[in-house]
Amino acid sequence: MKLRYFEYCGAYRFRLTFENGEVKEADLQGLIGRHVDPNALSTAHIDSEWGCLEFLNGLVDIEPKTLYRYVCAVADKRAA
To answer: What CATH number is associated with residue 38?
Structure first.
C-alpha cells in the first residue's frame, strides 16, 4: 500500500493519503522521533518508486506498509 500524498500539519503530525484512497492523520513522533529532529521534518518527501515517506534525503525512510500499520494502530488507540 503505497503512500500517494502527504501534508505536514506541524510538530510530528502528518495527514497521509494511501493508494487505496484512505486518508489518515497521525503523530509520527513515536515512529521517527529518535531519527528525525523536529527541524528536519520539512525534508519529508515521497519516494515515487517505492511510495515510502523519506526524510533527510533518504537517510530515514518508512516503508509504506509499516507507515500504514502504524497510523492505523494509532487511530485504533485513540478510538478506544
So the answer is: 3.30.2020.10
Q: What is the pTM of this model?
A: 0.89
Helix and strand numbers, DSSP H then E, in the chain: 2, 6
Q: With 60 as the cut, is the pLDDT of residue 32 above it? A: yes
- Whether pLDDT at 70 is above 80: yes
Centroid of chain to Cα 79: 19
Domain count, the chain: 1
Parent domain of 44: 3-79
Cβ contacts of 68-74, under 8 Å, gap ≥ 24: 68/1, 68/18, 68/24, 70/26, 70/28, 70/30, 70/31, 71/16, 71/24, 71/25, 71/26, 72/24, 74/26, 74/27, 74/30
